[in-house]
Amino acid sequence: MEFDYSQALTHLLSHVYRLYRLNVDLLIQEYGVYPGQPPVLMRLTEQDGQIQKELAYKVNLQPATLNVMIGRMEKSGLLERRPDAGNYRVSRVYLTDKGRTATTAVKSVLRDIEDRCFARFNADEKRVLRGLLLQMHDELEQLKHENSNLTNKRQDVE
């Protein structure tokens, strides 16, 4: 039987995720926050004053990409960079008051969308879905690890 991507569960999942992101992106713009920026705000809410390198790792971005994003967020008044007290070559990233206010609004948007997404789910259905998604996540993490090892072996041969 030939694989029909249009009927694949992963295809449906990608469509659901795109719609989720579209709605988040539309609603957060009102607060001066743009696509890709919420994870940075959330990580800084958890631990303000992070070094850019560790923040890049936590939000799964290349340091150079994060640097550009931080620059934009700094210009819009959401963040500020300050030199590290112990190492002048390192800068730390902090939320401003405007950034904290925007983060609160973004969290509210995310909560509202989460509620809307699962409005017709009961608690058991949510629990089952969470378990299934975690299983998928684990399988894809394992596959990433296997593919990474395969890529490293190929590079060693070349």
Automatic annotation (TrEMBL):
| Annotated ranges, domain HTH marR-type | 6-138
Q: Which SUPFAM superfamilies match?
A: Winged helix' DNA-binding domain (SSF46785)
Q: Which Gene3D superfamilies match?
A: Winged helix-like DNA-binding domain superfamily/Winged helix DNA-binding domain
State the UniProt keywords alphabetically.
Answer: DNA-binding, Transcription, Transcription regulation
Superkingdom of origin organism = Bacteria
Q: Which Pfam families match?
A: MarR
Keyword Transcription among record annotations: yes
Alphabetized InterPro entries for the sequence: HTH_MarR-typ, WH-like_DNA-bd_sf, WH_DNA-bd_sf
Q: Is the keyword DNA-binding in the record?
A: yes
What protein is this chain from? MarR family transcriptional regulator
Q: Which organism is it from?
A: Paenibacillus gyeongsangnamensis
